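Case study.
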Amino acid sequence: MRLELKDLHVHYGKIEAIKGISVVVNEGEIVTLIGANGAGKTTTLKTISGLRKVSSGQILFDGQDISNVPAHERVDLGISQAPEGRGIFPGMTVLENLEMGKFNRKDRKSEMDEDLDKVYTLFPRLKERATQAGGTLSGGEQQMLAIGRALMARPKVLLLDEPSMGLAPQMIANIFRIITEINKTGVTILLVEQNAQQALQRAHRAYILETGNVVKEAKASDLLNDPAVREAYLGTGAH
Ligand SMILES: Nc1ncnc2c1ncn2[C@@H]1O[C@H](COP(=O)(O)OP(=O)(O)OP(=O)(O)O)[C@@H](O)[C@H]1O
Ligand SMILES: [Mg+2]
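After joint prediction, the assembly is written out as follows.
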């Protein structure tokens, strides 16, 4: 698995939200994309999963240009996104939501129990709540469900958009711990976060996005110690 964005441009009408970014995600990595509100993080993930159109540039998946491949086929290739704001089906039960994650896969029946087991092992809370309506879960539980549903598609690369958003500190720590756990099972992860401290602690490499441009790319541990980055994104400048 190798995901590469090459000089990617994305527009909303005449507005250019992504202005020519180049990003590489290698097999086995956790790569994080950090940046302020409106920097283009969500747009980048949506473009990778095929929900937004590429204006110019390329999205390469294992060397193949998938820029024009429909979204559902990208899921089959192994690209799966847990969307910002969770995007679960509120009227469906937890179990039904998880089953929806298999929607695209032809072999879904034979894999269902095995994959449900894996998700329930990562998130025991979801197993306890299997028959509860998705919309009545707590914020943290809904986040677990969104990630669990994305995992049901057996992704090679998992795209996570702000998994810590709106969660209490203890739940944030829990979600980040689980992200590392998922990565250790062999799933490559592209993680969008405003919680830069936690993201940089978990990621191998990082890109900083500012108004549609990549302004920095580095090892995550180096960025954690970079005074300018600390000042801008971690709220703790050099003394
Ligand atoms: N549907 C849309 N129509 C027009 N402009 C949009 C649309 N969606 C996003 N934008 C604009 O594109 C830019 C990038 O937005 P995006 O959602 O990718 O940012 P983000 O980095 O995810 O921000 P946040 O941290 O607030 O989630 C912003 O200026 C935003 O206003
Ligand atoms: Mg966003």
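Observations recorded in class. The mean pLDDT is 93. The CA atoms of residues 82 and 147 lie 5 Å apart. We will return to this complex in the next lecture.
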